[in-house]
Automatic annotation (TrEMBL):
Domain UspA span(s) in chain numbering: 1-140, 153-283
Family designation: Belongs to the universal stress protein A family.
Superkingdom to which the source organism belongs: Archaea
Protein name as it appears in the record: Universal stress protein
Length: 288
């Protein structure tokens, strides 16, 4: 499922935390990690000049090289094969170009606003990559730590759409690899049906989706719990994750086009923007 992981890095604590997730996933799936440092072409100082006008390494380039060297050292210690590269360009575009040209299966990156590489992995870049990348994107947010990541509980936010089914595949594959429990959450969006027949239809839809996920859990041998809540989808997802002590949130980026659009793009963007823990966003498969 995962053969090659793209790991954009910089010199921040959040990026170091993302490295831990990328290496853990690479170890679990016997994958290669492609570490990438992007020097933002719009930030002054990417190229400095020496005494005779020749280009010399700027502070950003030194920071990039340091970050890549650290990935190499950690990968070697973990027994994971890793490659390293530096490119100059707009961060989001450079990452998306790397996704296209390197045939990666997953992107793992930190989300923050600090570091010498300026705008590289700030949240807007992470959101742009998650929105446009044709492969799943794991955005690592939350308290920065160098401790090995734990995935004891995976939250699957679902609406039963095609995008959510693809997200389900990823949630269960990861849970199986790490011995995790999957907590599946369906949210009845109350602004679409606060009472009466419409509300009941939405609840019945959620019950059907929950049954399908429990069957899938029994078939794959992954422990599952299901829950149905009512309210604002993004708020309910965040609240459920906090209450259950979830280690990873998995959701699709495009949901149903009907009245029960739980995992629609705006919901995924809201969850990602306010995330206090890692979030894996998954796009639906392209139609033939």
């Amino acid at each position: 499922m995962i053969d090659r992981i793209l790991l954009p890095v910089d010199d921040s604590p959040e990026s170091r935390q993302a490295v831990g997730y990328a290496l853990a996933l690479a170890d679990a799936f016997d994958a290669t990690v492609d570490a990438l440092a992007v020097l933002d072409s719009e930030v002054p100082g990417v190229f400095d000049e020496g005494p005779t006008g020749e280009p010399v390494a700027s502070a950003a380039r030194v920071a990039a090289r340091t970050a890549l060297d650290a990935v190499g050292e950690r990968a070697a210690a973990a027994g994971v094969h890793a490659t390293e590269s530096v490119v100059v360009g707009h961060p989001t575009e450079a990452i998306l170009d790397a996704v296209d040209t390197r045939a990666v299966d997953l992107v793992v990156l930190g989300a923050h606003r600090r570091g010498r590489l300026a705008r590289f992995l700030r949240r807007s870049v992470a959101e742009g990559v998650a929105r446009h990348a044709p492969v799943p994107v794991l955005t690592v947010a939350g308290p920065a730590t160098d401790d090995p990541p734990t995935l004891g509980r995976v939250l699957l936010a679902t609406d039963g759409s095609e995008s959510a089914r693809v997200a389900r595949t990823w949630a269960f594959e990861l849970a199986g690899a790490f011995g995790s429990t999957v907590s599946a959450l369906y949210v009845v969006e109350t602004r679409l049906g606060s009472s009466g027949v419409l509300r009941r239809l939405l609840e019945e839809r959620g019950e059907a989706v929950a049954r399908e996920i429990r069957v899938h859990g029994a078939r794959t041998g992954v422990p599952v719990e299901t829950a149905i809540r009512a309210g604002d989808p993004a708020q309910e997802i965040r609240a459920f994750a906090a209450q259950r002590g979830v280690d990873l949130v998995v959701l699709g980026t495009h949901g149903r086009m009907g009245i029960d659009r739980l995992v629609m793009g705006s919901v995924a963007a809201s969850v990602l923007r306010e995330a206090d823990r890692p979030v894996l966003t998954v796009r639906p498969r392209p139609r033939a």
